[in-house]
Amino acid sequence: MTRSELARLIDHTLLKPDATEQDIRRLCQEAAEYGFASVCVHPVFVPLAAAILSGTEIRVGTVVGFPLGANFPEAKAYEARLAVERGAVEIDMVMNIGALKGGDHRRVVEDIRAVVESAGEGARVKVILETGLLTDEEKVAACELSREAGAHFVKTSTGFGYGGATEHDVALMRRTVGDAMGVKAAGGIRDAATALRLVAAGATRIGCSASVAVVQGLAD
Question: Which amino acids are annotated catalytic?
Answer without folding.
Answer: 92, 155, 184
